[in-house]
Amino acid sequence: MEPDFRRAMGWLHTWSGVVLGCILFAIFWMGTLSVFDIEIDQWMKPATRLPPAAQALPLESFRPSLNEAIAARAPFWNVELPNDRQSVASVHYRSKSGAVSHDIDPVSGHVLPDTGTLGASGFIFPFHYTLHIKLMNLGEWLVGLASMAMLVLCVSGVIIHRKIFAEFFTFRPRKQSRRLLLDLHNLSGVLGLPFHIILTFSGLTILGATFFPTGIKTLYPSPRGYFYEANSLSFLNTKPGQPGAPVVSLDETFKQANALWGGDRPETVLVFNPGKTTGRIAFFRSTEQQVVMNRDVVAFSSTTGELLSHPPAPRPIIRAQRFLSGLHFIHFHHWVLRWLYFVLGLGSCCMIATGYLFWQESRRARQAGTFGFRLVEGLSAGSITGIIIATLAFFISNRLLLPGAHILGVERAALEVWCFYLVWLATFLHGWFWPRGIWVSQSAAISILAALAAVLNWLTTGDHPLHTLSHRYLWPVGGMDLVLLAGSALALLTAIRLARRKQNATTAPRQPAGKTT
Amino acid sequence: MAQSGLKTTGRIILTLGGGYWATSASFVLFAFLMIACGLPRVEATTLSMMLAFLLYPCLILWVFGARRIGNPFVVFCALIVAGHIAPFFFSQGH
């Protein structure tokens, strides 16, 4: 390979990494947490920590909530039924004042008290692909740009390496920090390369229609038309219709769908245009036993109960696209694989973080005082350890805020989000104004906050790890506590080692990465 | 990269603007070709969308790896023009 080409790729790898690294870390961190979104939800909403029901509730027991949606003139209403990850059912609809969702007791069918939190599925998961920037879909575009950069980084990273095979086995923790960071970067990068590429590529294909709007508009009259056709949802293509129409019995309608599926349960029941003459009832077949998100949807008219559509098995290309979506969404239930995703996701985070820190270590001697260096130093502190601290602050505020708390007219769920952003901002400021010893102090902060979150869970709900681990239905809560405690120990170890290293190296302070959960 | 800041800026603009536009145009062009070959519209669209996400990083790497950016520039222009003319030639558009 020409040396010029390799140098050009090295330049591209360095600078796209430095510029987009902070966004990439945020995306991968939130994505890694989203692997266990339902489990984190259970930790954040103590009312939903219930044993699974022996018998499934009849669908008609969700009728009161459906009637509320009809009264609120909601454009849709749906219920997600319990499964082996989540023992409660949840209903969702959109009213004029915003999205409404309630958790339902799987035995009595009553609405469970609202904790007042967005939880992982309402905050962490959307953060993963929108960064919560709604203005002109800017967040999604930034995620798209960062993902594209990630693909370029993966390819250019392979090109600039001479000995890719040797890097599988190279890790020298006792060497100087710069060497150690590069080893760790290469190791996590090379070992996880298929994961980095496949997850980035499948993420892009999920949001594909958003990123090429002009292309879709040339091929389809409306982007919605493509979305419906690609997802077997064409039955939603209806006129608004007149209100006042009844919704037929959900259980009776389901019998027909059940016969078509040969006895499978649905994972979601959707009522579209509830209470209108053009209403639809759709049953989404459960896909927890397979990777492909098959979207086997049976749709009925909600006024007559007449079968409207049952799509044929998808053709190869659509099936390939749904396989990629399935790989990314992990809707299938498999505990070993789910943990593997989590660990590999942490590996990606580690790769991004060490890449960032390597850039700084190789410039610290020459450029430590320059504005650009200081800027990146603060950015990296805020975006690596900072986002971890902010996430922990989000969990802690969830356990500390009283139910129904209001401050200055801000509701409880929004207060938790404010905690996240304020703490996050503080970590950036800390990085910019007091960079000396930043990694030691922020690692120590992670250690304290993670342990605090686990202890607060015990104090506020009484569910300590010994209790949660002895009951199968509380494993998600116990698992989260154990991960918090393990992360706390790891962060403490990192902080101690960093502080010791700093004491030894009196001439030039060198600080390697703080890798935590 | 021992280069002036101006040339680097040029490359960045060419990848972000030209590269994206060329990818979007190739997406339309390829989808129309596939439709003309008899693939259903939804499959043609999905396939070319997935391929577009592979094409774009290749174009980015090309712009930064090429010694001169003249070649990528000309090819991008050709793709953009072709992608915008294509809808007039294929009757399957709406």
Quick take:
The complex is a heterodimer of chains A (517) and B (94). With 517 residues, chain A is of the alpha+beta class. Chain A is built from 18 helices and seven strands.
Please give a structural write-up.
The complex is a heterodimer of chains A (517) and B (94). Chain A is of the alpha+beta class and 517 residues long. Among the domains of chain A are: 142 residues, no CATH class; 150 residues, no CATH class. Helices cover 58% and strands 8% of the residues of chain A. Chain A is built from 18 helices and 7 strands. In chain A, helix 1 packs across helix 13, helix 2 crosses helix 4 and helix 16 runs antiparallel to helix 18. The longest helix of chain A has 33 residues. The two termini of chain A are 39 Å apart. Chain B is mainly α and 94 residues long. Chain B has one domain. Chain B is built from 3 helices and no strands. Chain B is elongated, with a radius of gyration of 15 Å. Chains A and B meet through helix 1, helix 5, helix 7, helix 9 and helix 10 of A and helix 1 and helix 2 of B.
Set out the fold topology:
The complex is a heterodimer of chains A (517) and B (94).
Chain A: H1 3-34, H2 37-44, H3 63-71, E1 76-80, E2 89-95, E3 98-104, H4 119-130, H5 138-159, H6 177-191, H7 193-206, H8 208-211, H9 213-219, H10 223-230, H11 250-261, E4 266-272, E5 280-285, E6 297-301, E7 307-309, H12 316-329, H13 335-367, H14 371-400, H15 412-433, H16 438-461, H17 465-469, H18 475-504
Antiparallel strand pairs in A: 1-2, 1-4, 2-3, 4-5, 5-6, 6-7
Helix pairs in contact in A: 1-4, 1-5, 1-13, 1-14, 2-4, 5-7, 6-13, 7-12, 13-14, 14-15, 14-16, 16-18
Chain B: H1 5-36, H2 41-65, H3 70-89
Descriptive labels:
heterodimer, A: 517 residues, alpha+beta, seven-stranded antiparallel sheet, 7 strands, globular, disordered C terminus, B: 94 residues, mainly alpha, 3 helices, elongated
Strand arrangement, major sheet of chain A: 3-2-1-4-5-6-7
Order of helices and strands of chain B: HHH
Number of helices of chain A: 18
Average predicted confidence as pLDDT of chain A: 89
